Amino acid sequence: MNLKKQLILSISKLSLFVFISLLGISTAFAQSVDELSDDQIQQFMKQAQESGMTEEQLMAAAAAKGFGSADISKFKERMTKLQADKKAPVNTNTTDTERRLNDTTSTKSVRQQIKEDSTAIRREKYYGLNLFNNKKIVFEPNLRIPTPKNYILGTGDELNISITGFAVQTYKTKVSPEGTVQLDILSPIYVSGLTIEQARERIINRLKSRFAGLNSSGGGLYADITLGNIRSISVTVIGEALQPGTFTVPSLANVFNVLYACGGPSEIGSLRNIEVFRNGKVIRTLDVYDFLLHGDQKDNIILQDQDIIRIPYVDTRVSLIGEVRNPKIFEVKRDETLKDVLAFAGGFKELAYSKTISLERATPTEKRIISIDQNEIANFTPQKGDIYTIGKILNRFENIVTIKGAVYREGSYELEKDITVKQLIARAEGLKQDAFKERILLKRERENLEPEIIPLNLSKILNSESEDIRLKLKDTLFIKSYKDLRERLTVSISGAINKAGTYEFADNMTVSDLVTMAGGFTDGASASKIEIARRIKADTIGVSKEQSIKIETIDVDRNLIGAESKKLLLKPFDRVYIRVLPRYEEQKNVTITGEVFYPGPYALKDKTEKISDLILKSGGLKSEADLGSAKFTRAGKVIGVDIIKVLQDRNDVNNLVLNTGDALEIPRKKETVTVNGQVYNPTTVPYSSGLKLKKYLDLAGGTTDSAFVKKTYVKYGNGRLDRTRSFLGVRAFPKIENGSEIIVPVRKRYKWTPAERIAISSAMVSIATILVTVIRTF
User: Fold this and answer.
1) Does the record carry Signal as a key word (predicted)?
2) Which range is least confidently modeled, 141-145, 163-167, 519-523, 735-739?
């Protein structure tokens, strides 16, 4: 299944990128290529690398969208140049020829990167190939290890010769093309083709002719020869490698080093029969699976110059999908079985159906399905193209019975041979005390898988009055409790109580008990005349036919001491109502601010206090108080109250009875009048008691042509409004008070639509025609 998911993911990713790329191209070429910034082009290049599409495919897509070859060529040149500038260091001495070479190399590297990314996705489905795509695994020869004793010297190797003791001398010499090393005190020594140990012995024997007692007991002189810089060798990779060719590697390189350098086998190359040729003969055959599965590198030998690595075609591959730990395509040798292939895949998953494996095999003419039993796996021989599918086990139990309800350990249990209802209850640690034993239910599947319910009297079974029932596969036993078979019994309490709500009913519960459970009375609660509303069931004494609820009234001790009469014990679903004391209520506050002697909040002592009483409580008005602009607010809304009339007559309608939250604001005198609206110079002018409204309009420059003068109105400081009145052509303008605002509205002229003009014209013509006809008639 993972292979299928990877394929779908790859297709989805490619489709999405084609869409994004074409969208990016459309946006880019909608303007001139020369107008595009370097950042826009670099973003396009980044998307191209992540997509898996080649540069030719993207340019073809652009051409298919209708973009000209000139634009595409120019865009390609910009992209190539940016890539070259990013990778190549700046060199002021670079010639034009070298620069063009760098540009070409850069284009190839982009194209190669795109190709490598798409190839890596395809290679992922083959077991082992991704080893050579993983950039976190570095197969490089370790040049810091001691020189292997069997290392064979060749041209280019460097030898370090150290003489210590009473004389100190150091020589560094390289193996010449003739295979010799030259010391200034000796004739050339031939070492090419010798191991490092053999060369050491030969050189020291020659040095003894110049240094007496060298490396002898008591001689006082000692010589040591080590390998310095190593040479490079040339190794050729042929066959089905991802990048076959000749590679120059250090002389300590092994087979894996070179395989990693060439990208490993291609998709049709073998991982299990990689041959190493030396002097025309196969000296070793490498199986990469040995390394992947067991970490075995016995065939990973150190290479020599002119060695050849041959990767042959893969012979037999099979696919393993489904419930295995690593589903992939595996390469199989001739002597291996399906058991080995399962081991390659890490074995079965925990929920794998291992009894039978489904095989899809190709015949010379068509496909066929083969079922492989579990006992055949060890000896079953895979063939080319086999596809093995391992399914999941069924989501069901082969030996299960279940018990639910009023037992101490409800759940599923093993269906043992001849297990009965009594034995299953015993397995569940027995019945709870509230178990309803007179009727339990056994749910069972019939042969056609239809469910059926079998009622049982558990009391009779436990008392051996009825036969105990043997259980079958998937039987479920339901044992209800008494609570499960009745409505949940509750009582509720509301009113002047701290935690009003619904509580579980209990026998012998009284009102005092319920009050205690509800957190006790609130401060203003009345302990007398507590009302109980009760459902009518069997007790209908003193209840009329029309009555559906029975009401009981009771008094209790406020301290909850003592108990009520048993006749008034609470019953299920009773509702208890606690009343508030008749004269108990929270303090109600009103506020007065502004030009009074004692502004602030005041409590209402009764329900008859009025605005004038509040002004009196606050110490009266200051001389600067502007009564005409006093503002009275109730519930967030301004109410136009005339405070002057309030103070003149306590019984005036403006002297409202105060409510909780009322606020009275008495501002300081403004001594100004504001003129707004359709005047030439909206302004604020000093107030003068002798001036009329027209005079204030003149002070504002007069009214404009769009002014609706006869609709002029005045807004007073207390929120009231007064408008201009007209009778028989004579206008009466509102009175102007200190702090007033004069507002001249705009005259709205109705504009006829063309359709309305045509309709009116037609109507007028019709009326005129009728009039002419009538006149002629008379």
Assistant:
1) yes
2) 141-145
